[in-house]
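If you are new to this repository, start here. Below is one unmodified record pulled from the training split, so you can see the exact layout before writing a loader.
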Amino acid sequence: MPSLIVIFGLLGNITTGLVYLSPAKTFWRIVKNRSTEDFECIPYICKLLNAYWWVYYGIIKPNSVLVATVNGFGAVLEISYVLLFLLFAPPQAKARTAILCGILDVAFPAAAILVMQLFLQRDARIDAAGLMCVFFSMMSYGSPLSAMVSPVA
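And here is the target side for that same chain:
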């Protein structure tokens, strides 16, 4: 009989998977209209960064395969969302998205993980990755607020 930890872990994965799927309707609209309209890229870039860190944490922390798998699924979805955004965004938004994605979703995680792998012991690496996960989770769930900024009249 599965333990309560596994049962609640699977329920958490289902919930997290649904959170990652929640923008699908928006992206269906983007594809259908062939335009990103006034949508912002920042929430998707932040969610991708968050997913990367949770995958890394799930890989380095023992017995955390559920964390790694659901966030791996999320990372694939977020990569798809960012690519669709890049495909249908106007030139200025496309350039901004590509730059932000290159810095936040490629260069920064690669450099940070490399430094952690080279200079931190196993337990310190797990702790540091966990702190990064908490920080980027807060950032990713707060990032939709960036769309609420109104232009100065």
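Two things worth knowing about this chain: The mean pLDDT is 92. DSSP finds six helices and no strands in the chain.
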